[in-house]
Amino acid sequence: MSQLLVFGVDSPQTAEKVFELAGELDRQQLLELADAAWVERTPDGKIKLHQSVNLTAAGASYGAASGALWGSLIGLLLLNPLAGALVGAGVGAGSGALGGSLADVGIPDDLIREIGQTLQPGGAAVFFLARNATVDRVVEAIRPYNPTVIQTNLSRDSERELVALLQQNHPVGASAATGL
Predict the structure, then answer these.
(1) Taking the chain, what is the end-to-end CA distance rounded to the nearest angstrom?
(2) pLDDT of amino acid 59
(3) Are 22 and 133 in contact (CB under 8 A)?
(4) pLDDT in tens, 74-117
(5) CA-wise closest residue to 104 among 51, 63, 150
(6) Which residues touch 98 (CB under 8 Å, ≥6 apart)?
(7) Domain limits of the chain?
C-alpha cells in the first residue's frame, strides 16, 4: 500500500529543492515514488500546483503517436497515407490532451489545493505518494529542510515516530521502522 506524506516547508524554493531531492532519492532506489507534487501559496494568496507528471502533455504525445499510426493505416486503405497520418496525429493529440487533462492519478488535485489553501502566503508543501522507502536515509536527507508533517496516511504511532525522527538533531538510527 502506498503511503501519502505531506510536508510543510518555509518557501517555494525549499519545496522545489525537496521535490528534486525526492526524485534523486527515487533514482538511488531509496524512495519508490508513485507520485509527487508540491504546492505554493503566493504572497497574493493564489494557489499554484506543481506536479511530477504533466498528464496533458503525456496524453497529447501518446495520442499523437497512436493517431498517426492509425491514420496512416486508414490512409493506406484510401490511398493517401500521408494525409491520414497528419489527420490522425492531430485528432490523436487533441483527444490525448483532453484525456490527460481529465485524468487524475496519484495524489488527488483537490487534496493538493485544499492543503494549499491552509498555507500561509509565501508558504509551500511537498506531497509524496511512496510505495516503499529506506526510512532512515530518506529522513536524513530531508531533515536539513526543516519540514513539518502536515498530513499522512500512516498509523498514529508511525506518524509520531516520523515527526520525532524529523525533529532529532543527530543521525537517524538503523532501528527506525515507521512503516513506510
Answers:
(1) 9
(2) 46
(3) no
(4) 666 666 666 666 666 666 556 555 554 444 457 888 989 999 99
(5) 51
(6) 59
(7) 3-52+107-167, 55-102
**What is 3-52+107-167's CATH number?**
3.40.1520
Percent of the chain with pLDDT over 90: 29
Are 33 and 22 in contact by the 8 Å Cβ rule? The answer is yes
Rounded-to-integer distance, Cα 9 and Cα 18, Å: 9
Q: In whole angstroms, how far apart are CA 86 and each of 44, 67, 82, 92, 177?
A: 44, 8, 6, 10, 55
Q: What would the grid cell of residue 98 be?
A: 483532453
pLDDT confidence of residue 12: 95
Q: Are strands 3-9 and 148-152 parallel, antiparallel or unpaired?
A: antiparallel
Q: Which amino acid is at 32?
A: E
Name the DSSP class of 146: -
- Among residues 10, 26, 11, 12, which one has the least CA distance to residue 128? 26
Q: pTM (2 decimals)?
A: 0.65
